[in-house]
Design goal:
globular, membrane, transmembrane helix, Fatty_acid_hydroxylase, 6 helices, binds zinc ion, Sterol desaturase family protein, mainly alpha
């Protein structure tokens, strides 16, 4: 039980950290031509950028399959990654970008800060000088809620 939770956590947190690094140095680097389809917000259901989700999802499925006999660490890490992928889809694609209009945006708290941070990432939609590359890792300045009257 502890063992499985440990590796689910490693898969989940590993995706956030490696995802932020890959986003900053590769997606806003050599893979900009693919990733920019997310920043340009063309119409249509799919973006070329969705290839990254397929790529990470493929690795997660592969880990689950190869770790299936004996439910070893690869199996649980794959599930942690999958859980991250599902959370990312719900928060980033549905809540923040509203690819399907299901949720109303929260007005305060951590989720609102997450949305502000990701909006700042999209603020100028350029390859260079973007901020806030993670999703759950919200830079401190976005956590301070704006005072409302
Ligand atoms: Zn980006
Ligand atoms: Zn986005």
């Amino acid at each position: 039980m502890v063992y499985s939770l440990l590796f689910i956590g490693i898969g989940f947190i590993g995706m956030e950290i490696s995802g932020a690094v890959i986003h900053k140095y590769l997606m806003h680097g050599v893979f900009w031509n693919i990733h920019k389809t997310h920043h340009m917000r063309q119409t249509g259901i799919f973006e070329k950028n969705d290839l990254f989700s397929l790529f990470f999802g493929g690795i997660a499925i592969l880990l689950i399959v190869v770790g299936m006999d004996g439910y070893d660490f690869r199996f649980w890490t794959g599930w942690g990654m999958s859980l991250y992928g599902i959370s990312y889809f719900l928060l980033h694609d549905l809540l923040i970008h509203r690819r399907m209009k299901l949720f109303k945006g929260p007005q305060s708290g951590y989720l609102a800060a997450m949305i502000r941070a990701h909006r700042a990432h999209h603020a100028h939609n350029q390859k260079h000088n973007a901020v806030s590359f993670g999703l759950f890792i919200v830079p401190f300045r976005f956590l301070k809620a704006k005072k409302r009257r």
